[in-house]
Write a structure and sequence with these properties.
The model has no long low-confidence stretch (mean pLDDT about 90). By secondary structure, the chain is α/β, with parallel strands linked by helices. The protein is about 50% helix and about 15% strand. The longest helix is centred in the first third of the chain and has 20 residues. The radius of gyration is 22 Å and the shape is globular. The strands form two sheets. The chain has a seven-stranded parallel sheet, sandwiched between helices. It has a six-stranded parallel sheet with strand order 10-9-8-11-12-13. It has 18 helices and 13 strands.
């Protein structure tokens, strides 16, 4: 007897085939055309609509949402899969935003998607803008049909006359066929904001038309006070003793292949590491293992030492930016920790995957990244040691790039601070 999981996967595969997606597109267009002609008053008029990423338990996703709300004028309606997908925001941002859960809009079966599209349609009619948080979820690498639907919803909004855009996102060199087709269609109607030069060239090569180079919107994150008890004092004490502060983050998605925890243990116990103090911090709390699990794994290896400060909860994006500003270097398997560090001028070493890190480092002007897997196992420790030896040069390069990066990040919301 087949397991429920196998049956569910087969049902979803049938629901996501090309014919079903085409029918879904046709029915969705009809729903939006009907909404456009309706005389029923629009809901949430004079608000920006933001289609949020999966969110819950991910500092990078939270950072992009907060940066958008902080950067546009007027209220923001945030569409999520679940009510808890957007974490607690600073009060001034929470006062200007409303979260509405539409569980089927991106991740549901076709009839669930269309049900939530009917809920969204009257809100689109009165919207100031419609923006999709693109990040690394547009090319179908994780899940094809939600990527297709993100492009399609933005196109539907544009066809209704709404200012629509896909905010700064990556595009890998092997997108899923359906995501590529929908990207091309969307690019004829709205701006696709690519967050790095490699993604720009890949989108154009794949047939994208209105491709606009930007940088990740999370670069607009503003530092906020750190609430982790004792952390700032610990950093001050370590600096007074002549140690450099290094942030260490492991990514549960690549840990098995890349062995970041083992590398960090070797770094802490190395001659170079003896002149440093380390903050072990998580960036994503979901998944098995989560980043928090990997903080625990590292502490089991190195033991109770005054030179390592473990954090076992997610900080807010603003707290991460503040912590990065206290550090000399961040070493991470999460690109958004690199982005938040760069936003305050702190250099990073990143372990990349899916080919989405090289473009960011091209903007940054450094090459202190390495591919995950066997390459990281062989070379990450050497790259970190080299980066610490060349830290002054690296820091100068990132500081020089910082304002240019933030200017490019502001292009994500060009015009939305004065819409209507």
């Amino acid at each position: 007897m087949q397991s429920k999981q196998k049956i569910a996967r087969r049902v979803r595969a049938l629901a996501e085939n090309r014919l079903v997606l085409a029918v879904e597109d046709w029915r969705g267009s009809a729903i939006l055309r009907k909404a456009g002609k309706s005389h029923v008053p629009a809901h949430h008029s004079d608000a920006h609509i933001l289609l949020a990423p999966p969110g819950a338990g991910n500092i990078g996703d939270q950072a992009m949402v907060e940066a958008f709300v902080a950067s546009v004028s007027g209220p923001v309606l945030i569409i999520t899969r679940r009510a808890g997908d957007v974490g607690e925001m600073p009060q001034e941002l929470a006062d200007r935003s409303t979260v509405v859960a539409m569980p089927g809009l991106l991740y549901g079966l076709p009839w669930q998607h269309l049900r939530d599209l009917r809920r969204l349609a009257p809100r689109l009619r009165g919207a100031l803008s419609f923006s999709v948080v693109g990040a690394d979820i547009m090319d179908g690498a994780y899940w094809e049909s939600p990527s297709v639907r993100r492009f399609r919803l933005a196109r539907f909004a544009a066809e209704l006359g709404v200012d629509a855009r896909v905010l700064g996102f990556s595009w890998n060199d092997a997108p899923s066929p359906a995501a590529r087709r929908e990207m091309v269609r969307a690019s004829r109607a709205l701006d696709l904001l690519a967050r790095d030069p490699k993604s720009v060239s890949r989108l154009i090569a794949d047939g994208g038309e209105r491709v606009v180079p930007v940088a990740d919107i999370a670069l607009l994150t503003e530092p906020r006070p750190i609430t982790e008890i004792g952390l700032e004092g610990w950093c001050t004490e370590q600096r007074s003793e002549g140690r450099r502060i290094v942030l260490l983050n492991s990514n549960g998605l690549i840990e098995a292949s890349s062995g970041l925890v083992d590398t960090y243990e070797a770094l802490i116990n190395s001659p170079v590491g003896s002149s440093c103090a380390f903050v072990a911090l998580p960036h994503v709390s979901r998944g098995v293992p989560s980043d928090i699990d990997l903080v625990d794994a590292l502490m089991e290896k190195v033991g109770d030492t005054a030179e390592v400060f473990p954090i076992r909860r997610l900080l807010s994006p603003g707290e991460v930016a503040s912590l990065a500003s206290l550090a000399d270097l961040a070493v991470t398997g999460r690109m958004h920790l690199s982005i938040l560090s760069a936003s305050v001028g702190t250099p990073t070493v990143t372990v990349g995957y899916q080919g989405k890190v090289a473009g960011f480092y091209e903007l940054l002007g450094t090459s202190s990244f390495i591919n995950g897997g066997a390459e990281a196992r062989r070379g990450l420790l050497s790259l970190v040691e080299e980066s610490l030896r060349n830290l002054d040069e690296l820091t100068s390069t990132v500081e020089l790039a910082r304002e240019g990066l933030r200017d490019k990040a502001r292009r994500n919301v060009a015009g939305l601070d004065r819409a209507r």
